[in-house]
Design a protein that fits this description.
Layout lengths: L12 H18 L5 H14 L10 H14 L5 H4 L5 H15 L4 H5 L1 E4 L2 E4 L11 H14 L5 E5 L5 H9 L4 E6 L2 H14 L4 E5 L14 E6 L14 H4 L16 H13 E10 L5 H10 L3 E7 L5 E7 L3
Parallel strand pairs: 3-4, 3-6, 4-5, 6-7
Antiparallel strand pairs: 1-2, 7-9, 8-9
């Protein structure tokens, strides 16, 4: 008997929905959900290809991808955790954060906070993002303050969100610490961070350099620290997008010819504000080390020297007022 082939019947809405559900279930079985590790590996590839990021370290993509994942999961990554499957909500949030990073947005801005020398501080748009490299400046400042005797006063100039000032206040609890910045938005964030960290020995004020300080501190300060905006105005367009687009212009350049305009002003004023033997610490790029030393010597500071971090990179130049 010859078999007669019939045209397939048109599917109704219910039949179509049932078949769609069946197909979806099949694909879900055929394509298992990705693990945390697989999502991280995909993010690394995307971050590594981004031209909006300064890839100063070949492992930067992994650092960033893992840090964002830990933020999404709310805990430190472990091998066991990395083998688990990421749920739909976490997957969507992670993908959004990775795209923001690929676009050049700094990791602390994406997360809304940053851990600096063990202190978890808020980060927000319009205020310079704290950098891990500044932890060395904070360490040198804490060391210098611990050598001082009596009532000790430290002032962090161009403080931004206040990471260096807050670290000094936290680690030298008997000291009086000030963070000053021309940006009222920055000092407001510094105050908010101090409240959250319950640090009561620190104050923040906005104003043009030392004009923000009370006059009673003239001749009473033990230490100045500054991470100045030392990028030349003509070099701003050469900066990576993650800096050029997301950092306030005033935190990048002081519009001077050599990038050391604020350092020159602070060094000149140091004698009137520092105690005899008071210290000025300046964080600069390695290429500015010698010029910064010359600026401090020209301002008649003594014992001018420099310090290298654990990577052997010159980070901090220092000088003292005569004793």
């Amino acid at each position: 008997m010859r078999r007669v082939l019939e045209a397939p019947a048109e599917l109704g809405p219910r039949e179509h929905a049932a078949r769609t559900r069946g197909a979806s279930a099949y694909h879900a079985r055929a394509m298992p959900a990705k693990t945390v590790t697989e999502h991280i590996d995909k993010a690394i590839r995307k971050i590594d290809k981004s031209k909006n990021i300064d890839h100063w370290d070949r492992n930067l993509g992994r650092y960033d991808a893992e840090e964002l994942m830990a933020e999404v999961l709310g805990r430190k990554l472990t091998p066991k955790l990395c083998d688990t499957v990421l749920d739909a909500s976490a997957k969507k949030r992670y993908a959004t954060m990775v795209e923001r990073r690929v676009n050049g947005e700094p990791i602390p801005r994406i997360m809304g906070h940053y851990t600096f020398r063990g202190l978890d501080m808020l980060v927000k748009e319009g205020v310079f993002v704290p950098r891990a490299s500044s932890e060395f400046l904070a360490a040198e400042a804490v060391k210098a303050m611990r050598w001082r005797r009596g009532h000790r006063v430290a002032v962090d100039v161009a403080t931004g969100a206040g990471p260096v000032a807050l670290a000094i206040a936290n680690e030298v609890r008997s000291a009086e610490v000030w963070g000053i910045d021309i940006s009222a938005e920055a000092t407001a964030l510094g105050r908010e961070n101090a409240r959250r960290l319950e640090l009561r020995n620190i104050q923040f004020r906005s104003g043009d350099m030392l004009a923000a300080l009370p006059r009673r501190l003239r001749g009473e300060i033990d230490l100045f620290t500054i991470h100045p905006p030392y990028v030349l105005h003509t070099e701003l367009n050469t900066l990576p997008r993650e800096i050029r687009k997301f950092e306030p212009l005033q935190s990048l350049t002081d519009n001077s010819d050599d990038g050391l305009g604020l350092v020159r002003r602070l060094a000149a004023d140091a004698h009137a504000w520092l105690k005899p033997g008071g210290v000025l610490l300046v964080e600069v790029g390695t290429y500015l080390s010698r010029r910064t030393q010359s600026v401090l010597r020209a301002a008649h500071l003594v014992e001018v020297t420099w310090a290298k971090d654990s990577l052997g990179v010159t980070r901090v130049v220092s000088g003292r007022t005569p004793r």
